[in-house]
Amino acid sequence: MPGTVLIAHGCVEVTLMNAHGHVAIIHHAREGETLGEIESISREPCLASCTSVGPATYLTCPVDQLVRHLSNPLIQRNIMRITRARLQRDNERNYVDQNYPLDRRICAYLLRLADRNNRVSQSQGYIAKLANCSRQSINRALAGLRDDGLIMIEKGKIRILDRIGLELRLAGQTAAAPQPEMGMTSTD
């Protein structure tokens, strides 16, 4: 469907297929994100494919409607901000993918895939594909995160229990135990 899409609810997987048929997962777009505006403006074919992951609701803006409003400086600025945010996101992800060990990359993938309730609907096999490693390697890394109390795995589904702890692990730090305030004593 030509035009721009605004995701109102759900998750949309954005993938790219090369000439040999190999598919790379580029992004998981969520509520409030737009897709297709650059292709709409440039009148070029879509660079990637989009597939909803579970139920999704989206609004569409046909190409002619978007083009009609392009002279508005607010629209121009917002499209440039969206483009800049995507470049920054992609640069950060490339850095993580190229420089971080698997256990830290998995933290990034879980944070990226989690919905607003901290649930990851994708399977461990899916995460292995995303990380370009074996499912056994994913299972070992997830077991470590579970043992550290950062995630819970129940019936094959992952839920983040400690988002801040997972972010700290991604940054190469470990969560420190809370320290009592100065001058406070326990009254057991």
Helix-strand layout with pairing:
Layout: E1 4-9, E2 12-17, E3 23-29, E4 34-35, H1 37-42, E5 49-52, E6 57-61, H2 63-68, H3 73-99, H4 102-113, E7 119-120, H5 124-131, H6 135-147, E8 151-154, E9 157-160, H7 163-170
Antiparallel strand pairs: 1-4, 1-6, 2-3, 2-5, 7-9, 8-9
Helix pairs in contact: 4-7, 5-6
Question: How would you summarize this macromolecular structure in one to three sentences?
Answer:
The protein has 188 residues and is an alpha+beta fold. Helix content is 43%, strand content 21%.
Main β-sheet, spatial strand arrangement: 4-1-6
**Proportion in helices:** 40-55%
Report the radius of gyration as a whole number of Å: 20 Å
N-to-C span: 66 Å
CATH architecture of the largest domain: Orthogonal Bundle
Largest sheet: 3 strands, antiparallel
Please state the overall shape, judged from the principal axes of the Cα atoms.
elongated
Note the run of SSEs as H and E. EEEEHEEHHHEHHEEH
Q: What is the residue-averaged pLDDT?
A: 89
Q: Detail the poorly predicted runs.
A: 177-188
Helical segment count: 7
CATH class of the largest domain: Mainly Alpha
Query: What structural class do the secondary elements suggest?
Result: alpha+beta
Q: What is the chains' assembly state?
A: single chain
What do we call the CATH topology of the largest domain? Arc Repressor Mutant, subunit A
Strand content: 15-25%
The strand count comes to 9
Kindly give the count of domains: 2
CATH superfamily of the largest domain: Winged helix-like DNA-binding domain superfamily/Winged helix DNA-binding domain
